[in-house]
Write a structure and sequence with these properties.
By secondary structure, this protein is an alpha+beta fold. The chain folds into 2 domains: 161 residues, no CATH class; 130 residues, Alpha-Beta Plaits (2-Layer Sandwich), CATH 3.30.70. The chain is built from 9 helices and 10 strands. Strands 1, 2, 3, 4, 5 and 6 form a 6-stranded antiparallel beta sheet that branches. The radius of gyration is 24 Å and the shape is globular.
Length: 309
């Protein structure tokens, strides 16, 4: 993991890394305390007479870096700060008006503010990342102004190496959903139809038949799920430079009736993206008959590969 010392404060929220594919359609549940619990170093004392820098990302110096016209709403217009051939994308903020206590309180109580600013943070990184390799920072990474150059100097080799590895690559999300109840009912109906009840059956045998069928269906579902996931990811993984898997998101977060059974991120060479999309579509068509749905999203900044690259 990239560790940067001397941050004024840092709120490592799951909204960026954990649900990159959901940023553009955030719901109130997605910005609840459960998923956006801020973690602030309480040993840092506020200085109420100091400017600070909100850090979005680090990229390479280039002749044609066009900055977005808007960043977080509590900061100035995004600007570039250079160190050798590195560029930090920042917004100046006045912590006399928006300090760590104020940001922490807004995150806990103001869902609309949080959604808007998480999205604006992402948009800055996304726009820069369309044409340049980028190291994205987590939401609310705020530094002392005087320390930024020293941080770039201390981490220069690390940043440079990482940007080189991320050049000409994109992150793509892959999520697989299962319509569990529909698939279970389908399997159960077939199993019950195939199951013969002894002559002269009564309610006891009918109950036993249903219990037995239900157990078999659960086992069959487990095997189908395992087989489907293995077959889904095998060829897709072979196309990727790196792969990262996160815990499937709960239905309260996805807003879907289907259960998420796979939540993956794939770092791809840009030239391989069309083949990845084509293969994902082919896999979706193949496994749809068993109640599975494949969804891909992207391109995204390499949120899930900054720590691994």
């Amino acid at each position: 993991m990239l560790i940067i010392d001397d941050l004024l404060f840092w709120l490592p929220l799951k909204g960026i890394v954990g649900i990159a594919g959901q940023i553009q359609k955030l719901t109130d549940e997605e910005v609840s305390q459960e998923y956006y619990q801020p973690k602030i170093d309480n040993t840092i004392v506020n200085n109420n007479h100091m400017k600070a820098l909100y850090l979005y990302a680090i990229t390479k110096q280039a002749a044609q870096i066009t900055l977005p016209s808007q960043g977080i709403e509590f900061g100035n217009v995004p600007e570039k700060i250079a160190f050798q051939d590195l560029i930090a994308i920042v917004s100046a903020i006045d912590i006399t008006k928006m300090n760590k206590k104020e940001i922490e309180e807004r995150l806990k109580t103001d869902l609309a503010w949080t959604k808007k600013n998480v999205y604006l943070h992402h948009q800055v990184i996304q726009e820069i990342g369309e044409n340049h390799p980028v190291i994205p920072m987590k939401f609310a990474t705020i530094l002392k102004e005087k320390d930024l150059h020293r941080i770039l100097e201390d981490n220069y080799g690390k940043f440079k190496n990482l940007l080189q590895k991320l050049a000409d690559k994109e992150e793509w999300g892959l999520k697989v959903y299962l319509d569990y109840e529909k698939t279970k009912d389908k399997f159960l109906t077939k199993d019950l139809a195939d199951d013969k009840v002894p002559s002269g059956h009564d309610w006891y045998w009918e109950k036993k038949k249903e219990e037995s069928a239900s157990r078999r269906v659960e086992e069959r579902l487990e095997k189908t799920l395992e087989k489907t996931i293995n077959e889904t990811v095998f060829d897709l993984e072979n196309m990727a430079v790196k792969v990262s898997y996160s815990d499937p998101l709960p239905q309260a977060l996805t807003g879907r009736e289907e259960i998420m059974v796979l939540n993956g991120s794939f770092l791809l060479d840009k030239q391989k993206v069309p083949k990845f999309q084509k293969l994902a579509k082919k896999i979706d068509s193949k496994i749809k008959k068993n109640g599975f749905i494949v969804e891909i999203s992207g391109p995204w900044p390499p949120y899930n590969f900054v720590e691994q690259s």
